[in-house]
Amino acid sequence: MKIKVALAQFNVQFADPAANRHRIAELTAQAAMVGADVVVFPEMWNTGYALDQLDQLADEDGKATTELFYRLARENQVGIVGGSVAVKENGHFYNRTLVVDPLGQVVGQYDKVHLFRLMNEHRYLAAGDQENYFRLAGASSASFICYDLRFPEWVRTVARHGAAVLYFPAEWPDVRIPQWEMLLKARAIENQAFVVAVNRVGDDPDNHFNGHSLAIDPLGRVIADAGEEDGITYAELDLDQLATVRGPIPVFADRRPELYK
Ligand SMILES: NC(=O)CCC(=O)C(=O)O
């Protein structure tokens, strides 16, 4: 079975949720027109890292994002791994992913578990503590957010349920893009899974972002690299490849969790 994934890398407008929602709608329609099964967006796409303005800008209980994705998924008959958005809930702010199926139903939700101090997340956001494991486009899948990529123990904890596809929405600055690529390849190889990682392009007051959203196969080979431009790059994931990779080297069956402290 093959699934077609749209890596929707775009220039998130700083502190401008309305403009970003408009762009999300355009990109979703564009991806659906060419038959994508799933469209994936970057991290914090509603506000960017306007963390000191979240009181005015964050999505109250995620309602606006849920409604937008419900409409877009149904109109375009496409699954959405919704990057992440700043959400205000019970007096806290979260960096939250919503995943919806083509019927617009929320099939996954995730609050970023590891907050990135270098971009001040720990000062403004509350961390999540739940896994996000879901089925989308017929594939068992899991999602993480950006800095979570540096925690192989967390990715493994979730991936060991058998995920075929691991999604990583991100706002990962250009200065560390060589690490981004290596870490994504490592997560794909060690978990014998496809990795789909979507970064943004453009600038905010503190960082430059140069994209390089990537789709990587379970052997660590890059299937698609979005380069540095704003726009959609497509990747076809051949899920049948998983059996040929996992069969001869059954890393999940060979684990020795009793030794891992
Ligand atoms: N938004 C993030 O979590 C950025 C993570 C990052 O840049 C890193 O190097 O890790």
From TrEMBL:
GO molecular function, a single term: hydrolase activity
PROSITE patterns, A to Z: CN_HYDROLASE (PS50263)
Start and end residues of each CN hydrolase domain: 3-239
Keyword Cytoplasm: no
Keywords: Hydrolase
Domain of life the protein comes from: Bacteria
Pfam families the record matches: CN_hydrolase
Protein name (record): Carbon-nitrogen family hydrolase
Organism: Limosilactobacillus panis
